[in-house]
């Protein structure tokens, strides 16, 4: 955020906080009259400034905003005014604003339904929806997750392999000390029944029951039936468990370890989400890697749906170090990514630099703490279709400065786009506002990065969506971080031989989440659709 923008923001906050008062002498200026409620008239093709509709709410909130302990800025308005704000805001900021439809907002039954219509219908070269990342969440959920990584749920990450019958839903991993972990759920357990409803049920009531259990409301209890197969004995065990949704503190960093394999010190870290709560454990992990003087790093991003761009710039530095990035302060060093807005906002385009400093997220400022790094020129990254957004930014950013990335796993989700969270009237909206390119100007990976053998990879490093590596199916039979787990094992084999395993035919992992046919269950919004977003830090034009 520029100084000018910051000053304007502070001024607007001060003005919003001013109220009426009594007393004063006869020469005191009269108070401005209360602003009139904006017009609710919709005119096709005419887009008034979104600012005139901001905070005019159908149900204004009372009390204090937990983010700054100031009164909510909500004013008495209507659902139509909230829709008109969304319409103008989208036309001002949406990356593909010229592809937006302009239906009459009054024809939509709800604000949510209208927001869902405010996106492009265009597709990528493969036929996938170009904007598959349009969503909103409550302001309460946004604050909980943004400040402490808290989300409502059981602490289980579902791997939704088939959304339509025959459905296949398995446990990918559990959060530390969560109800799911304490109940004994294990990676690979297959869900077969929810609240007495077979997972392959097709009637609308049954599908609604399944969705309600997979995306639970806080405090609700649901019963699940799982099947667990013992790979050693081939025996099958079925068990039931009841789980109550709680506020779950996510554990973004798991399974950190260093082991010596074939004479190499190999570091491994499972990183699940780019949120502020993950900064300290990520720093601790890389301090271990630096102290151990590792030779190779395996970064497991297979279930990382993205998050904060500033954290991606930090992680990029912690992998590559000062020698490769030339980073010493938050605004010096090589370009990690270029942030590019629509042509109405091109003056706001900026470069994100590799970041060598820790962030005080309570104050939103960089500190003097220098991040650790093993100073690597190569990294092995484990991926699936759930590897998205800021995770892909790591792949693209590192290749942009000629750090070698070896992909092991499946094609990534394809999201070189991002947004800044936009709160209004108790809801936070995420609408695509910028695209990213690396230091070489490459950002064309809307269909994801694809692992290909080194012999097949004819693209120039950092300028292609094909990345040397191996296509390997996600392995639910072994623990994440275990040397015999298929993706980790393939990475270790590649280190030794430069070749992929003899059998590396990928089976669907989460790619089927993008296929909508028949009675499909909903995709949980966390963490896949959390996406890449920016939260400006104080005193800086951007997060860097």
TrEMBL record:
<dbReference type="InterPro" id="IPR005151">
    <property type="entry name" value="Tail-specific_protease"/>
</dbReference>
<dbReference type="InterPro" id="IPR001478">
    <property type="entry name" value="PDZ"/>
</dbReference>
<dbReference type="InterPro" id="IPR036034">
    <property type="entry name" value="PDZ_sf"/>
</dbReference>
<keyword id="KW-0732">Signal</keyword>
<dbReference type="GO" id="GO:0007165">
    <property type="term" value="P:signal transduction"/>
</dbReference>
<dbReference type="Pfam" id="PF18294">
    <property type="entry name" value="Pept_S41_N"/>
</dbReference>
<protein>
    <recommendedName>
        <fullName>PDZ domain-containing protein</fullName>
    </recommendedName>
</protein>
<dbReference type="GO" id="GO:0004175">
    <property type="term" value="F:endopeptidase activity"/>
</dbReference>
<dbReference type="InterPro" id="IPR041489">
    <property type="entry name" value="PDZ_6"/>
</dbReference>
<dbReference type="GO" id="GO:0030288">
    <property type="term" value="C:outer membrane-bounded periplasmic space"/>
</dbReference>
<dbReference type="Pfam" id="PF03572">
    <property type="entry name" value="Peptidase_S41"/>
</dbReference>
<dbReference type="GO" id="GO:0008236">
    <property type="term" value="F:serine-type peptidase activity"/>
</dbReference>
<dbReference type="InterPro" id="IPR041613">
    <property type="entry name" value="Pept_S41_N"/>
</dbReference>
<feature type="domain" description="PDZ">
    <location>
        <begin position="152"/>
        <end position="230"/>
    </location>
</feature>
<dbReference type="GO" id="GO:0006508">
    <property type="term" value="P:proteolysis"/>
</dbReference>
<dbReference type="InterPro" id="IPR029045">
    <property type="entry name" value="ClpP/crotonase-like_dom_sf"/>
</dbReference>
<feature type="signal peptide">
    <location>
        <begin position="1"/>
        <end position="21"/>
    </location>
</feature>
<dbReference type="Pfam" id="PF17820">
    <property type="entry name" value="PDZ_6"/>
</dbReference>
């Amino acid at each position: 955020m520029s100084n000018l923008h910051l000053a304007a923001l502070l001024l607007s906050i001060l003005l919003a906080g001013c109220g009426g008062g009594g007393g004063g002498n006869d020469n005191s200026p009269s108070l401005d009259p209360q602003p009139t409620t904006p017009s609710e008239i919709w005119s096709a093709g005419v887009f008034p400034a979104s600012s005139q509709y901001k905070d005019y709410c159908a149900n204004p909130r009372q009390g204090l905003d937990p983010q700054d302990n100031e009164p909510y800025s909500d004013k008495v308005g209507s659902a139509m005014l909230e829709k008109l704000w969304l319409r103008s805001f989208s036309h001002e900021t949406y990356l593909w604003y010229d592809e937006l439809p302009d239906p009459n907002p009054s024809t939509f039954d709800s604000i949510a339904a209208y927001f869902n219509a405010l996106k492009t219908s265009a597709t990528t070269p493969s036929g996938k929806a170009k904007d598959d990342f349009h969503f909103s969440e409550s302001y309460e959920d946004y604050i909980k997750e943004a400040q402490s990584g808290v989300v409502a749920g059981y602490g289980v990450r579902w791997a939704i392999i088939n959304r339509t019958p025959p459905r296949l839903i398995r446990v990918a991993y559990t959060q530390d000390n969560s109800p799911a972990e304490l109940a004994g759920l294990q990676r690979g357990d297959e869900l077969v029944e929810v609240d007495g409803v077979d997972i392959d049920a097709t009637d609308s009531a049954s599908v609604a029951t399944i969705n309600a259990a997979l995306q639970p409301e806080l405090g609700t209890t649901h019963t699940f039936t799982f099947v667990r197969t013992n790979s050693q004995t081939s025996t099958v065990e079925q068990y039931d468990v009841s789980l109550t949704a709680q506020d779950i503190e996510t554990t973004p960093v798991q399974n950190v370890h260093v082991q010596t394999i074939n004479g190499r010190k190999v570091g491994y870290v499972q990183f699940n989400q780019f949120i502020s709560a993950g900064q300290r454990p990520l720093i601790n992990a890389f301090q271990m890697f630096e102290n151990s003087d590792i030779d190779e790093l395996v970064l497991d991003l297979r279930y990382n749906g993205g998050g904060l761009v500033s954290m991606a710039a930090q992680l990029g530095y912690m992998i590559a170090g000062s020698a490769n990035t030339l980073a010493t302060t938050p605004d010096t060093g090589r370009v990690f990514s270029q942030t590019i807005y629509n042509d109405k906002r091109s003056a706001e385009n900026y470069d994100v630099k590799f970041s060598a400093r820790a962030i005080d997220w309570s104050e939103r400022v960089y500190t003097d703490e220098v991040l650790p790094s093993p100073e690597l020129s190569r990294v092995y990254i484990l991926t699936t279709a759930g590897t998205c957004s800021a995770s892909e930014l790591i792949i693209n950013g590192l290749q942009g400065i000629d750090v070698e990335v070896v992909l092991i796993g499946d094609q990534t989700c394809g999201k070189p786009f991002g947004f800044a969270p936009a709160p209004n009237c108790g809801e936070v909206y995420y609408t695509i506002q910028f695209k990213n390119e690396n230091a070489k100007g490459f950002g064309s990976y809307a269909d994801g990065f694809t692992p290909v053998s080194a012999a097949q990879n004819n693209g120039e490093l950092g300028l292609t969506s094909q990345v040397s590596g191996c296509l390997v199916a996600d392995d639910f039979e072994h623990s994440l971080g275990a040397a015999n787990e298929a993706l980790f094992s393939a990475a270790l084999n590649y280190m030794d031989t430069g070749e992929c395993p003899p059998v590396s035919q990928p089976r669907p992992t989460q790619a089927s989440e993008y296929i909508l046919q028949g009675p499909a269950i909903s995709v949980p919004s966390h963490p896949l659709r959390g996406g890449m977003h920016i939260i400006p830090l104080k005193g800086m034009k951007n997060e860097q």
